[in-house]
Design brief:
The complex is a heterodimer of chains A (120) and B (149). Chain A has 120 residues and is mainly beta. Chain A is built from 2 helices and 9 strands, in the order E-E-H-E-E-E-E-E-E-E-H. Chain A has helices spanning 21-25, 107-117; strands at residues 2-7, 12-17, 29-33, 37-42, 53-60, 64-71, 74-80, 86-91, 99-103. With 149 residues, chain B is mostly helical.
Chain lengths: 120, 149
Amino acid sequence: MANVDVDRTRGMLTVQLTGLDRLWALKSRVEVPLTQVRGATHDPGIAHEHKGAKVGGTHMPGVITAGRFRRHGDMIFWAVRKPANAVVVELTDGAPFRRLVVETDDPRATVALVEGAIPN
Amino acid sequence: MSAAAALFAASGYEGTSIDDLTVATGMHRGSLYNVFGSKRSLYLRALRAHLDHEILPSTAAIGSLPDAEQARSAAVAAFDNGPAAGFLLLAAVERAPKDPDVADLVAEAFTALEDALRSARAADPPHEAATVLGNRLRLRARPTTSQEE
């Protein structure tokens, strides 16, 4: 599980992993400038896609996908147990990841928060 | 883009998943995100395209008609029609109250309809535009015989 927040003063999107996911992902926090965020989408289906090659983290199919994965040359950060709550945050070129795929408590609220914090 | 618009028109924003969009557009999920960034951004682009390719050309044609009565019937027959018929009305109901960018596009389309009726010398363009929208809604509410699945 992840807490996704927007820090408007610093202009940052922060993703803070909770509980043991911090260990599974080998990373507890990801920060990205809002200028590098293109959008957020609630996307339960993405969990059924190939994850690509694990670069650092944990992949137990059907249980947890957490950490850094590389697919088709793109670095993707995953922190998902329950696919139903997966949110995809797409980033721009130059960001540390192509996209973040994270599970949140309330995917709709996360999407609204992120979409409301970035210019179109 | 037109495949996405038709899908949004048929299933709405919430009812259309990224899986649905990958099937309809033939694009891989990664490419879809690469190109559009998010489902919302794809939705806004599809609605913009529906305005540019359907709504605005049809209102331009309606505005060039010689009298108000003809303009009104043409609008009832053609407004928000085409491959993504009903997309605008659905966007107005489902997304405009929650999304200011959708609300802007919907307002632009409604204003274009009013302006067209004004050009065709309608007596009370806002009122007649409202009547056209009401009639379009009633037409949309009829069950169709060929339901797509």
